[in-house]
Design goal:
- The protein has about 270 residues and is α+β, with helices and mostly antiparallel strands.
- The protein folds into 2 domains: about 130 residues, PSTPO5379-like; about 110 residues, PSTPO5379-like fold (2-Layer Sandwich).
- It contains 7 helices and 11 strands.
- The strands form 2 sheets. Strands 1, 2, 3, 4, 5, 10 and 11 form a 7-stranded antiparallel β-sheet that branches. Strands 6-7-9-8 form a 4-stranded antiparallel β-sheet, with helices on one face.
- The radius of gyration is 17 Å and the shape is globular.
- The relative contact order is 0.24.
């Protein structure tokens, strides 16, 4: 009998191997810290009726929605993102929305796939975390096998059709003295949200309770010599879909990304 893959074992595998386990429902955990140097992506799948508006939403809000892939109508394969990536099976956990409400989560969506659907892949900040770790920065949620905390902010998105709403942010704690280094490293990854959109007091971007995120696991309390670093987050389009209340949509479950075969070094903004 094949055993489920543990997080620490998944960290040792290549992207294709991890996806194989995911496809066979042998890995259903979060993907932070996995597939070193490979692009990870957020996922939105919706009816073709909304695809043009959603595409423009991504183009108008590139910080939160850096578009890295889009399928043809009815085609479940991201052919440019990796070998045989089947979006119906290759994400550890999917959220299903009906009229803006989360109705269930599934480990594959083959039974829900139709010829009228279009899938979008949006860059994820998990991608640049490998570079931060390589430079000896501590990433709390990776070290503790948790999901990065994510928060609704008061930062407005640019509207496109039925899609608008506010930006969602992800947060990591670092030393204040490392601010310039953190900015320099993450700025290179424009396809994965780039540099932080805010550093410091959470209330300045509308976050009232930093210890209780809207998605993910609660963070530790920061030390006096540390600060909160906030990045635009790929859950932003998921939140926009919820607020638009479109009849049907599939997304990744926050923290459970599509792992691609794309080398992050091929996409870096030099």
């Amino acid at each position: 009998m094949i055993k489920n893959l543990h997080f620490t074992d998944a960290q040792k595998l290549e992207s294709k191997q991890i996806r194989k386990h995911i496809r066979n429902n042998l890995y259903i955990n979060h993907t932070a810290g996995l597939a070193k140097n490979k692009l990870q992506a957020n996922l939105v799948i919706l009816h073709k009726k909304y695809s043009d508006d959603f595409y423009q939403f991504c183009k108008k809000n590139t910080k939160a929605c850096p578009l890295v892939g889009m399928t043809q109508i009815g085609n479940p394969f991201f052919e440019k993102l990796g070998e045989n990536i089947d979006i119906r099976h290759d994400v550890p956990s999917y959220n299903i929305y009906e009229n803006g409400k989360h109705v269930k989560s599934l480990n594959n969506v083959e039974a829900l796939w139709t010829k009228d659907l279009v899938a979008f892949a949006i860059g994820c900040s998990f991608t640049f975390e490998h570079d931060l770790i390589k430079n000896n920065f501590r990433i709390d949620h990776v070290l503790n096998n948790k999901i990065v905390p994510m928060y609704k902010s008061n930062l407005k998105n640019s509207k496109s059709g039925v899609f608008s709403g506010n930006m969602v942010t992800s947060m990591r704690i670092f030393k204040k003295s490392d601010k310039e280094k953190i900015i320099k490293i993450s700025k290179k990854y424009s396809f994965a949200h780039g540099e932080p959109i805010h550093i410091g007091e959470p209330t300045k971007i509308g976050i009232k309770d930093i210890l209780n995120p809207d998605w993910g696991d609660g963070p530790r309390t920061k030390k006096p010599d540390e600060d909160y670093f906030f990045w635009a987050c790929g859950v932003t389009p998921q939140h926009a879909v919820m607020e638009a209340k479109i009849p049907f949509c599939i997304t990744h479950t926050p923290g459970h990304m599509l792992i691609t075969d794309v080398n992050e070094q091929d996409l870096i903004s030099l």
